[in-house]
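2024-03-11 09:14:02 DEBUG pipeline.ingest accepted 1 chain
2024-03-11 09:14:02 DEBUG pipeline.ingest length=125
2024-03-11 09:14:03 DEBUG pipeline.predict start
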Amino acid sequence: MRPGGREQLVSGTRPAARRTNIAAAQGVLRSVDAEERIAWVSQALCRTTDPDELFVRGAAQRKAAVICRHCPVMQECGADALDNKVEFGVWGGMTERQRRALLKQHPEVVSWSDFFDKRRNRGVS
């Protein structure tokens, strides 16, 4: 996922192809401690990627998610996007559609980081 892209959403600016609710976008980071976020964002493989490459539409999102495959903070990124219900872009190797499906399938989840940790510890992919 693109840390710079997330900064853009928080500041109220968006990629040209996207129009989002500014109030919702400004609340993207509310549930994540800033220090924790800085720690994982600084390790993201996409930190130097053009954010527009991760804010594409449709099938192009699967191609964009390739950068996430070997990212050391893919889980943290995906959990952050799910916890904050980020609607647009590729985050944690997940497309918009994949994140929506997870949110719909597991409405009871309070912390996606905890959810992913439990699944990993049980050996569930």
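2024-03-11 09:14:41 DEBUG pipeline.report The helical segments are 3-11, 22-26, 34-41, 60-64, 74-83, 96-105, 112-122.
2024-03-11 09:14:41 DEBUG pipeline.predict end
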